[in-house]
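Give me structure tokens for this 128-residue protein.
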Amino acid sequence: MKSFIYTSSLILLFIMNACNSNTEAENSKIKVVNKTAVKSGIATSEFTVWGNCGMCKETIEKSVNKEGVVKYNWNTDTKIMTISYDTAKISLQTIQQSIADAGYDNVKFKGNDAAYSKLHECCKYERK
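Here you go.
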């Protein structure tokens, strides 16, 4: 029984540490990116979105899953969102606002305070 409790405690500690791995020092190393290239009406943009973990990734990516968005990926390590979208159907500003509405700061908009407060504890990144 003691072995089970010890093992369970170690696993819980590992999970908590993995989720909170984005330290203040790591936040200060985040490279802020904001660039776009357009080819044949399809724009590909890269920009910084602050967040921490896999749950952040799910929420951020779900917020941009809209008509006109062709593909998207938010990198948990670099904090860079890479997104391709049809400029006739959706704008970069609309995409970035949608991410902010979900509670995540990005290069254009501050995340919605009410949405941020509802994020899981490990998703509460250091706000600028």
